[in-house]
Amino acid sequence: MDYTIFNELSAREPAKNKNTAKNWMRILLKTCKEAGQLGFKQLITREDFFQTLIAKQYSILD
C-alpha cells in the first residue's frame, strides 16, 4: 500500500481553541510518520485541505 486517505468527516467540527487544534496536528503528524514506517508514501487529501479551519481563525496551513 502506498497511500493513506484523510477522511475529512473525522474533522467536521473545529477545535474549541488553538491549543487543541495544534495537538490534533501533532497527532496527525505522528500518525503520518508511523504510516510512513509501514510503507505508506503519501497522504491523500481534498484539494482545499490546507485551508480547512481546525479552530476559530486557525487553518491547517497556519
Write a structural description.
The protein is α+β, with helices and mostly antiparallel strands and 62 residues long. It has one domain. It is built from 1 helix and 4 strands; from the N terminus they run βαβββ. It has one helix at 18-37; strands at 3-5, 42-44, 53-55, 58-59. A two-stranded parallel ribbon has the order 1-2. The radius of gyration is 12 Å and the shape is globular. The termini are far apart. The mean pLDDT is 85.
Helix content: 25-40%
End-to-end gap = 30 Å
The helix-and-strand class reads: alpha+beta
| Total strand segments | 4
Give the helices and strands, then pairings.
Elements: E1 3-5, H1 18-37, E2 42-44, E3 53-55, E4 58-59
Parallel strand pairs: 1-2
Antiparallel strand pairs: 3-4
Short description:
The protein has 62 residues and is of the alpha+beta class. The protein has one helix at 18-37; strands at residues 3-5, 42-44, 53-55, 58-59.
Annotation keywords:
62 residues; single chain; 18% strand; 1 helix; two-stranded parallel sheet; alpha+beta; two-stranded antiparallel ribbon
